[in-house]
Amino acid sequence: MTDQALAAESDSRDTPDTPDIPGKPTSASRTTLSHIMTNSDTNLLGTVHGGVIMKLVDDAAGAVAGRHSGGPAVTASMDEMAFLEPVRVGDLVHVKAQVNWTGRTSMEVGVRVLAERWNESTPATQVGSAYLVFAAVDADGKPRPVPQVIPETERDERRNQEAQIRRTHRLARRRAIMELREKRAAEGLAD
Ligand SMILES: CC(C)(COP(=O)(O)OP(=O)(O)OC[C@H]1O[C@@H](n2cnc3c(N)ncnc32)[C@H](O)[C@@H]1OP(=O)(O)O)[C@@H](O)C(=O)NCCC(=O)NCCS
């Protein structure tokens, strides 16, 4: 989707029209991906490279989006990736992902990243979090409708409501940027 198209989207699309597809509960697609960090995962400082964590996040979220939508899904955007603590070689990293919100053809997947020493029984601590939007696609790569997610717990419900706020802000931010660009272009200012 172009920035213009996304910006032009009406917030009314947040009430999706997918009546023929039965909804799916959050737990049906919730997934955890675990991986032990090794020397090949490090950056120049000797801790784990952020990109390694981001790939795991994208992998886990993609599995969730595929399971929820019942077919292929592609990453449309990744935002609010937060790195809270460094991850070290020898950490067992758990990437926990679930569908927070569904639109007509897109899904927001929320991800929490936890780490614990691979050979110790100390509790895992949260080291990161992220929110990704996936679009379900058909064989031609075109968006296809998704089942609506059915929050099952109070926490699921809170995450669903927060995801709707992020969706509104994504659209509003793009709209504001497009308006600024159009204004600058009308004034003959450079890109
Ligand atoms: C994502 C993609 C399928 C969207 O296709 P499109 O023709 O623009 O389709 P639409 O405009 O109908 O958008 C489809 C849905 O995705 C959402 N979407 C599209 N771009 C988005 C973005 N940048 N951020 C958030 N949501 C986005 C739309 O809001 C829409 O959701 P809705 O149906 O629930 O309202 C297309 O841009 C694409 O294939 N991108 C490449 C994906 C990819 O290769 N990912 C891996 C990167 S390495």
Automatic annotation (TrEMBL):
Any one Pfam family match given in the protein's UniProt record, by short name: 4HBT
Q: Where is this region: Disordered?
A: 1-30
- Which InterPro entries does the entry mention? Cytosol_ACT (IPR040170), HOTDOG_ACOT (IPR033120), HotDog_dom_sf (IPR029069), Thioestr_dom (IPR006683)
- Any one GO MF annotation of this record: hydrolase activity
Q: Which UniProt keywords apply?
A: Hydrolase
Q: Does the keyword Hydrolase apply?
A: yes
Q: Does the keyword Hydrolase apply?
A: yes
Q: Which stretches make up the HotDog ACOT-type domain?
A: 27-140
Question: Its family?
Answer: Belongs to the acyl coenzyme A hydrolase family.
What is the protein name for this chain? Acyl-CoA hydrolase
